[in-house]
Amino acid sequence: MINADDMFRAFEPHREDAVVIVTGTAGKHWADHTTKQNRDLNMGGAMGHTTSAALGLALGLPDEKVVLFDSEGSLLMNLGIIATISGQAPKNFLHLLMDNECYATTGGQPVPNAQDINYAGMAKEAGYTAAYSFDNIEDFATNIGNIMQETGPVFVAMKIVPEVENEPIGQRTRRPTRSRAETIRTLREELGIS
Amino acid sequence: MVNQQAALLKPETLIDEFKKIGVTHIVTIPDSETNYLYELMQEQDWLSVVPASREGETFAIALGLSVGGKVPVCLIQNTGMMESGDSIRGMALDAGFPLLMVVGYRGWNRHGVITDTAAQYTEPFLNAMGVNYYLVETDEDAERISIAYEEAKKNKRPVAILVGDEYHGFNRV
User: Fold this and answer.
1) Is B56 in CB contact (< 8 Å) with chain A?
2) Contact at CB, B86 and A87, closer than 8 angstroms
3) What CATH number corresponds to the domain at position B105?
4) Per-residue pLDDT of chain A (194 residues; tens, 9 = 90+)
5) Which of A110, A133, A188, B166 is such that its CA lies 20 to 30 A from the CA of A139?
6) Testing the interface with B: which of A41, A49, A50, A184 to mutate, by most B Cβ within 10 A?
7) Peptide bond between residue B124 and the one before it cis (omega within 30 degrees of 0)
8) Nearest-5° angle of CA B85, CA B89, CA B95?
9) Taking the CA of residue B98 as centre, how many other CA atoms within 13 Å lie in the half-sphere pointing to its CB?
10) Residue B2 is inside which H or E element, if any?
11) Do A46 and B27 touch (CB under 8 A)?
12) Is residue B169 in a domain?
């Protein structure tokens, strides 16, 4: 399995000017590695629809690379989106899946068929141009540079070490995060969108 | 018969309204009742049609398009709208962007008793979500589409058009 912090560290040198969206428990580590906050976007969440919002962004910004770090619990809530993405075939879209095999924010209960499901296989058969699976940081770090240069939509499934949270929500330590409205405003300013 | 035909809502009228507003993308789930409209939309070179797999996707895709400076419309049926409740909350109402929802009002009828629960729950659903709506039945109502979009822009909220002629004017007759 891959430590999410290590994964983001390996990704960041290859980011260039991509717009980056992160979800899930593991996504919090991106804040420790990003150097272009104006191109980081918080799209919020609604039962798995961050993926859909990222697709919309890729369609709305065809000249920008859009990279989504998704989570498997989220994707499973709206699995049909992989067909929608394949149908639209955005060349500028990279879809990475952080698969920790559980609902980490609710105590670590396993997602359905957690260990045997093949997300990259489903994405490839749905129509993504390419799909990869990684379960160790070395292989991910070796390949992510080339994957970033591929024509999308490309899918990357990664086995991620779960960081299970068991404290009641009100007692959890919260990192300061930028609101959705703030990240949208700064991205639109960065891109000159009125 | 002539009067009955004149009272229809023609798909071409919706296309004209979309163009007037400046719509760039229609995010939609096609259904059998709106096939002719779907074909017409595909023929417009100024309009991109984005078929979704489930109605809840349409609101989130529309949000992403809006962030990118586009003008999307969600075109769905009332049944799918109700399935989309949390997406409307999280991706439309909370996001603070103008959005026009064009919703086929399945089961609605001006005459007699409405027996289809899809129609019975449609307006209570929109009221519960705090989404204002306009009923469009015929071509004469079409300006309500522009009115609704202006309201959406002013308030940075979704506004719905309920298409009350879903079983007639949207289809090739």
Assistant:
1) yes
2) no
3) 3.40.50.970
4) 999 999 999 999 999 999 999 998 889 999 999 999 999 999 988 888 999 999 999 999 999 999 999 999 999 999 999 999 999 999 999 999 999 999 988 888 999 999 999 999 999 999 999 999 999 999 999 999 999 999 999 999 999 999 887 777 777 777 768 899 999 999 999 999 98
5) A110
6) A49
7) no
8) 145
9) 16
10) helix B2-6
11) no
12) no
User: Do residue B90 and residue A47 have CB atoms under 8 angstroms apart?
Assistant: yes
CA distance B70 to chain A (A): 6
**Paired residues of B73 in beta bridges:** B26, B100
Q: Where are the domains of chain A?
A: 4-191
Instruction: Tell me whether residue B172 is in a domain.
Output: no
Determine whether A32 is exposed, middle or buried from the number of CB atoms within 10 Å of its CB (0-12, 13-18, 19+). exposed
**Helical residues (DSSP H) of A89-136, grouped into ranges:** 119-126
Identify the CA nearest to A161 among candidates A98, A119, A96, A74: A98
Per DSSP (E only), the strands in chain B are 25-28, 48-51, 72-77, 99-104, 132-136, 158-163
Looking at the domain A4-191, which fold is it?
Rossmann fold (3.40.50)
In terms of residue numbers, what domain contains B135?
2-111+120-163
In a domain, B56, yes or no: yes
Phi then psi for residue B112, to 5 deg, are 75, -160
- The residue behind tokens 């049926």 is B77
Q: Which amino acid is at A56?
A: G
Please tell me the distance from the alpha carbon of residue A137 to that of residue A129, in angstroms, as a whole number.
23
Task: With respect to residue B173, please indicate whether it lies within any of the assigned structural domains.
Answer: no
> CA distances (Å), A95 to each of A21, A132, A155, A169, B24, in order?
10, 10, 5, 29, 24
**Could you give the number of structural domains in chain B?**
1
Contacts of B62 (CB under 8 A, 6+ apart): A56, B25, B27, B72, B73, B74, B91, B92, B99
Torsion on CA atoms A111, A113, A115, A117, rounded to nearest 10: -110
Rounded Cα gap, residues A73 and A109, in angstroms = 10
